[in-house]
Amino acid sequence: MSELTAHALSGGDLLRFATAGSVDDGKSTLIGRLLYDSKAIFEDQYDAVERVSTQRGDDYVDLALLTDGLRAEREQGITIDVAYRYFATPKRKFVIADTPGHPQYTRNMVTGASTADAALILIDARKGMTEQSRRHSFLATLLGVRHLVVCINKMDLVDYAEQVYDRIVDEFTSFASRLKVGDLEFIPISALKGDNVVTRSTNTPWYDGPSLLYYLEHLHVASDRNLTDVRFPVQYVIRPQSAKARDYRGYAGTVASGVIKVGDPMMVLPSGFTTTVSAIDSPTGPVDAAYPPMSVVLRLADELDISRGDMLVRPNNPAEARQELDLRICWMDEATTLTPGRTLAVKHTTTWGRAKVREVLYRLDINTLHRDESATALQLNDIGRVRLRCSRPLFMDDYSENRATGAVILVDESSNKTVGAGFLA
pTM to 2 decimals? Predict the structure, then answer.
């Protein structure tokens, strides 16, 4: 195994995290502070934010404007859409998903957290835990986010009182005992002033933990990846019509899980044909191994009938073919409801099918975590368990084991809108 492959598998130099919390808890300000204090914005970007802040009559430079890009967001001072930002430090690269806090935008929170390694749950030190704090914490764990960082914000407005911090820590810890939380960290911060965001603050001498950026830079997420179950959904078959590559046949896609090496035996689903990997091509040239989330082209020893939507797996460890699906679904459409008898298009990895809703088993109250088994439909932002019958088998794993192959999206066939997200759990 090459040094590059070993480094990527052992450490992971990219961290995806989502921010969540109630409205006005300071999510966008925190991200703006991270970007500004880590020198990740250009001077003209800061000047533009300063100019807009002055025009609005703000008493300070509102760093939240670095992420709140929509005009409606700037006018209301809230986040509506999921805003993605990218920055890097000498130790790591980061992708940030700034998700909205309003209850009606729960679907946006689901979108942002679905690919996150960690979730930053912001809590206003003056208000303590709110309904949205519980809602977003539950959603993050439901979507397989294994690391929760609870940022107790606006500590400057409570005079950096240790007892306020301790009270919120106790309250959140009690609530988190009902969730599947793998890693839980608490950090007292002031996003506006910068306390404990990038550097440790002298205003909290009673706190002996890391700053937020230090924690994110050193968070180990490589062990969260599924490097055991090889899953390679085929996205495209490459057959160049060129004299230089007359006999080239490659299968392009993104490694969903597992490690694929040259010489490994592979099986094609659904046909069941077996072969071996003869070469792996990447955008930078041939490599000796591929791992998630690399996009590569696999070349196989045998010429088999393989097309988009097929999946390459280990012969002794295939994904299970499922046609009857019992899924947890978040309904995202404000115009329609999910009811028994409805037919939808379903997309799983690189394949499409059709699914008919057989039964709504229950709707989940994500504030109390209780099941409403009398529910017969799901409305906007509802989460529930639904039974579907698919037109073709889907090769799925449990979402807890594989987030890529354990999830589907539901699409309305008449409008082509994504109306739901489901996962096998």
Answer: 0.81
